[in-house]
Amino acid sequence: MWGLVFVLYALGKFPKLFSRENHHMRGLSILQMCLAMNMYGYLPTEIIRSVFNLKFMDQLDEEIENCYSKATYPLRVRHMLMELNRAVCLDHPEENIPWFHEKYCEDFLETVPVPTSVFHSEVHQALAQLVGGPEVVRANVHTPYYYLLDFEFVLDGSSNPVPVKEYAPSTPRNSKSQKKIAVENKHGHRRVAVILRRENHYCTNSRQLLGRHQVECRHLELMGYTVVEVPHFIWYSMAHATQEDKMQYLKDQIFPAR
């Protein structure tokens, strides 16, 4: 399907095909197509408005009500709709589509286990030695629009860590809407998002990052983050390296100019 979407995107023919054939497509397929088109930077206003309206929402509700796979299909549809809602809010703010998945995301976070892997623990330990402890580095936090970060910290204009108590959280609790795209960064400050790239973030037998994770990086940068990715295959290749070597690797990623 991705290849077909790319060909249609390259030819500039998808909107007409979509408007002519979308009544034959399942709601989930339409959401998937829209996410694919958005990844390629081609999601026209016409299609955005055909999805974010009451008629299409009613179609999704009807599909969920009448589907056979009650255990999985509704969850897939709801999560895909959330991802598209987030993508449109971030990539197409001019469309003024409201963010209406706050409650869904809060509930979803309740089901996400806290990472306990050796990978996570080792990077956390190295970051604590390099940047600072819990007074500086926050672990397992979420951003506006509910991307999950393994670690987050802020550096001032001199690349010194800023204590957590001195900067605003990336997402205020009890916020009912996310109107602001950007996180709050003081002039010269960098809010760093450290993301551990696990095996399931990549294509099978490949080091090609999956599309949704490529989009995640783009969205984090749009929100004002400096993104630092730590691929599992690089970290595991340092299994026999010293702690100083691991810290040096992270230092090179976080402070590339030093």
UniProtKB/TrEMBL annotation:
Specify the superkingdom. Eukaryota
One GO biological process term: mitochondrial RNA processing
One Gene Ontology MF term = RNA binding
Q: Which SMART domains match?
A: RAP
- Family annotation (InterPro entries): FAST_2, FAST_kinase, RAP
The chain positions of domain RAP read 192-252
> What name does UniProt use for this protein?
RAP domain-containing protein
